[in-house]
Write a structure and sequence with these properties.
- By secondary structure, the chain is an alpha/beta fold.
- The chain has a single domain (about 1-210), classed as 3-Layer(aba) Sandwich (Rossmann fold), CATH 3.40.50.
- About 25% of the residues lie in helices and about 30% in strands.
- The protein contains six helices and ten strands; from the N terminus they run ααβαβαββαββββαββ.
- The strands form two sheets. Strands 3-2-1-4-5-10-9 form a seven-stranded mixed sheet, sandwiched between helices. Strands 6-7-8 form a three-stranded antiparallel sheet, with no helix packed on it.
- β1, α3 and β2 form a beta-alpha-beta unit.
Amino acid sequence: MQDYYAARATEYDKVYAKPERQADLRQIEQWLPGVLAGRSVLEVACGTGYWTQFFAPRCTRIVAIDSAPETIQIAKSRVPPEKVEFVVGDAYSLPPQPKPLSAGFAGFWWSHVPRTRVGEFLRGFHAALEPGAPVVLLDNRFVPGSSTPITEQDAAGNTYQTRLLSDGTSYRVLKNFPSERELLAAVSPFATGVRYHEWEYFWALEYVTAAP
């Protein structure tokens, strides 16, 4: 996965140029900053900083983590350096912070988490946040004709896509598309006030971290 996103860094934002997704994107770009406004935010899998650029102006501080230095370099060009600390790191072993942050965001990361590691990810993510911190998880819905077809499914129920880069290189990429019921069941042990949002091409979970 890391090799794929490192190789795809300069092509990554093409996914946000799909004409059919523009209306959804504009709505989410308007909605998301309001949820995180006034907070110190831990962003997991920040990628090229596409989403960081929208909420950074309204946040007090952001720690943005990604495993690929290549995407972080692009992200650094998008946001004010005094607001965002970019860190190369592992989403399953987050770098320690001097104190917990007051909000969390993970955009287009959930779909790459193996089903058997969802609880592991959430425990580590929430441990870096204050109790009662608002969290947003944002990702794709599968829409035939817009989404890359599923080419494989493993015994654990994880699904995979075959993705081609512009140089012709092919990658097998884990990409899960959970149902609303699956998402609510996954976060309910760790969260309160869970709200599911759905657009034609995307979904989001908005919730508050529960006390330990």
